[in-house]
Amino acid sequence: KLLQVLSVGIMNPLVQLRQVALRPFRPVGASLFNKSALEQKERFGKDQLLLPGTNWTIDQGDNWLVVGPNGCGKTTLCQALRGGAQIIRGQIRYRPDIKPNMIDFLSMKKDNELIQLVRTVQETGGWNRLTDKDLIVRKMFFGDDSDESAERKHEILSDLQIDNLLPKHLSELSTGQLRKLSIAKLVLGEPKLCILDEPFGKLP
């Protein structure tokens, strides 16, 4: 078990977790880089409603969809798994080798924060030791290409068809390209648990 969600209540009066459903699935012949393949899902279990008193276990190799109407608490639940939302009842238990900050999270909010960072650096000439020269894709996302993961980086960037972006400045990129770079960086990190919040948002 990677983690267990046990009768969790989240401190947010706008969130109605009773409308959130959990849907197990398997991507059909999919790789992370193939949107159309990932959207074809083989159901292998019934939806579980996340109600007060309900427990949810995520095992190694599991894939889950968190589904529900707008404003029902999907993103807040994902944030709670990473320690980013206050829990007022129940608990989230992690496997001993997993900490909340080891769970990777991909969201459009993070993309927007990156876009705002680029604007801030360009408008002010620098921010938090960053200068405009630092906002090159290769340096900002992937660091030194001389390390042991260089071959792995090239493979992932090629699969996503964004290896040509490495020498570009972040301000030159579309939101879709930024999203693909975020996906590439996430995969390179090889997280034990990965949460994708609207992963195909902004992608063509």
Automatic annotation (TrEMBL):
Gene Ontology annotations for the cellular component aspect, listed alphabetically: ATP-binding cassette (ABC) transporter complex
InterPro entries attached to this UniProt entry: ABC_transporter-like_ATP-bd, ECF_ABC_transporter_ATP-bd, P-loop_NTPase
Highest rank taxon of the organism: Eukaryota
Organism: Mucochytrium quahogii
Keywords: ATP-binding, Nucleotide-binding, Transport
GO molecular function ontology, one term from the record: ATP hydrolysis activity
Gene3D superfamilies, per the entry: P-loop containing nucleotide triphosphate hydrolases (3.40.50.300)
Limits of the ABC transporter domain: 53-200
Entries under PANTHER family matching the protein: HEAVY METAL TRANSPORTER
Record's protein name: ABC transporter domain-containing protein
